[in-house]
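Supplementary Methods. Inverse-folding protocol.

Structures were first reduced to a C-alpha cell string of length 468. This string, shown here, constituted the complete conditioning input.
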C-alpha cells in the first residue's frame, strides 16, 4: 500500500491551531466530538508565537526600561542601567511563549484531541490530504472548521529580506536597532514603534492615510500622538514609499510626503501594512467554498460557509483580525456542529491598542452612533483627577461613555494607563444591555482606575462628584 492511501476518519477536523482553532477543537471535544486538529507550525498560531504574546512581552520590557529614567523625580535614583536584549529574547521565548504553547498542547492532550503538524488541502467536500514531514495522510471528516489565520502583507516596493522586516522578524531582533523606519501607522506599527523608541531606537513612522490608527476615535489618537512626539518619534502621514534599496547594514527609502520627494535611511525598515487571509492553496475553490473579493470566506451567523458542514472563523472571515474574536467564533462553530442554536453577536466586541497610553474601545463610537441615527449623550472623565492614576504618575487620557436618549450604554472609549484591563466591565455592560445608571449604582473600589468609568457615567447623567 502506498503511504498516504489509507483514509482516516474523524468527526470534526479543525484546520489551524491558533486561538480560534484550538478553542474550537477544545469546545467540540467538550461536547463529545472526536476531534483532529491540524497545525502548520506551532500550537497557538501567530498570536501566541509571533504576534500578540511576544509583542506584549516586548512592550512591557520597554516600558519598565523607560520608566527607570523617570524615577528620580519620585526619589528613586538608579545608576548604570543596562539592557541585555539577547537575554530578554531568551526569557521571552522560554518563560512566556514556550510555556503558553506547551499549555495549549496539554489542553489538547487532556481533551483527547489528536494533533497533526502539517498542511491540510481539501481534495473533496469531506476530505483533506494532510502533508507532513513524514509524507501525507488522508482524512475524511463529518464537519470541518477552517481557522488558518492570516499572513503579513508584503509590498512590491518593500520585499521582505535583509534589513526589511515583517512584524514577526522585528520581534526576534537580537539587538535594539539604532534607527527604524516603520511603514504603516496601524496598531502593530504604533505598538512596536513605541516599544523600540523606549528602548532607544530612533523611530520614523510612515502612514499612507491622513492619520495614524485609522478608524480609531480621533480624540483618543491625539493623546497617543502627543506621547509619540515626547519619545522623539517622527510621524509622516499621506506618505507613499516609491522605492527601497537594501544597503550594507541599512535600508534606504524614496518616500513622497508633504508634496516632496525624500530619501530616508535607517538600520531597519519594518513593514506593517496589513495582513491577508490564508485562504489560498488549501483547495477551497475546487470544492466551491465561497470567498469575497478580498479572499475572505463568506459565512452565516453560525460561522457556516456555503458548504453546510464546513465552518470558518478568525482572520479568514470578515471583521477585525482579533484573537478574542477568533476564539469567540470558534466556540460558536463548535456548538453549532453539536446542534446548539448559538449565533455570533459582535455588538460587544472590545478592541485594545497597546500604545502609550493604551487605547480600548467597545460598542459604538461617536461617529458610528451618529451615522446610525442615534441622538447621543456623552460623559467624559479625565485620569488627571483619578487618585490611582495620580499615585502611579500616569494621568494622561480619559474615559468616554456614550448612551442613547434612554440612557442605554451604546459605547465606551478609553485612552490611558492600563485601560486594557478596564474595558471588560464596559463590554459586560453593553452585552447585558445596561443603562448608565447600572454602572453608577455599581460600587467601584477606591482608589482604582475603574472609578474612571464610574465618574464618566455619572458625568453623562450630570451627577459627577469629582469634576465640575
Amino acid at each position: 500500500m502506498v503511504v498516504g492511501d489509507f483514509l482516516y476518519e474523524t468527526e470534526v477536523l479543525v484546520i489551524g491551531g491558533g486561538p480560534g482553532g484550538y478553542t474550537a477543537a477544545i469546545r467540540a471535544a467538550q461536547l463529545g466530538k472526536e476531534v483532529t486538529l491540524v497545525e502548520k507550525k506551532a500550537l497557538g498560531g501567530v498570536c501566541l508565537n509571533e504576534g500578540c504574546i511576544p509583542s506584549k512581552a516586548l512592550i512591557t520590557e520597554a516600558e519598565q526600561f523607560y520608566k527607570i529614567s523617570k524615577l528620580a523625580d519620585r526619589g528613586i535614583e538608579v545608576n548604570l542601567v543596562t539592557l541585555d536584549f539577547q537575554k530578554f529574547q531568551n526569557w521571552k521565548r522560554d518563560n512566556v511563549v514556550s510555556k503558553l504553547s506547551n499549555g495549549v498542547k496539554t489542553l489538547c492532550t487532556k481533551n483527547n484531541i489528536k494533533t497533526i503538524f502539517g498542511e491540510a488541502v481539501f481534495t473533496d467536500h469531506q476530505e483533506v490530504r494532510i502533508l507532513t514531514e513524514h509524507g501525507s495522510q488522508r482524512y475524511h471528516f463529518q464537519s470541518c472548521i477552517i481557522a488558518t489565520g492570516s499572513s503579513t502583507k508584503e509590498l512590491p516596493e518593500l520585499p521582505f529580506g535583509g534589513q526589511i522586516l515583517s512584524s514577526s522578524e522585528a520581534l526576534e531582533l537580537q539587538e535594539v536597532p539604532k534607527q527604524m523606519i516603520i511603514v504603516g501607522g496601524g496598531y502593530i506599527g504604533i505598538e512596536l514603534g513605541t516599544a523600540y523608541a523606549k528602548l532607544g531606537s530612533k523611530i520614523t513612522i510612515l502612514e499612507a492615510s491622513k492619520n495614524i490608527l485609522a478608524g480609531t476615535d480621533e480624540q483618543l489618537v491625539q493623546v497617543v500622538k502627543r506621547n509619540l512626539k515626547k519619545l522623539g518619534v517622527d510621524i509622516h502621514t499621506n506618505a507613499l514609499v516609491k522605492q527601497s534599496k537594501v544597503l550594507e547594514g541599512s535600508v534606504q527609502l524614496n518616500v513622497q510626503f508633504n508634496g516632496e520627494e525624500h530619501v530616508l535611511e535607517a538600520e531597519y525598515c519594518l513593514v506593517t501594512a496589513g495582513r491577508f487571509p490564508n485562504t489560498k492553496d488549501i483547495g477551497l475553490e475546487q470544492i466551491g467554498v465561497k470567498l469575497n473579493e478580498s479572499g475572505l470566506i463568506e459565512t452565516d451567523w453560525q460561522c457556516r460557509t456555503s458548504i453546510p458542514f464546513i465552518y470558518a472563523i478568525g482572520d479568514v472571515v470578515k471583521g477585525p483580525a482579533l484573537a478574542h474574536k477568533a476564539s469567540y467564533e470558534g466556540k460558536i462553530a463548535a456548538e453549532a456542529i453539536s446542534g446548539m442554536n448559538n449565533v455570533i453577536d459582535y455588538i460587544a466586541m472590545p478592541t485594545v491598542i497597546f500604545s502609550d497610553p493604551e487605547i480600548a474601545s467597545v460598542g459604538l463610537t461617536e461617529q458610528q452612533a451618529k451615522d446610525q441615527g442615534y441622538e447621543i449623550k456623552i460623559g467624559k472623565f479625565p485620569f488627571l483627577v483619578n487618585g490611582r492614576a495620580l499615585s502611579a504618575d500616569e494621568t494622561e487620557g480619559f474615559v468616554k461613555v456614550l448612551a442613547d436618549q434612554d440612557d442605554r450604554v451604546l459605547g465606551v472609549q478609553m485612552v490611558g494607563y492600563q485601560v486594557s484591563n478596564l474595558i471588560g466591565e464596559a463590554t459586560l455592560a453593553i452585552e447585558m444591555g445596561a443603562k448608565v445608571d447600572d454602572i453608577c449604582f455599581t460600587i467601584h473600589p477606591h482608589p482604582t482606575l475603574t472609578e474612571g468609568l464610574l465618574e464618566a457615567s455619572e458625568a453623562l447623567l450630570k451627577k459627577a462628584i469629582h469634576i465640575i
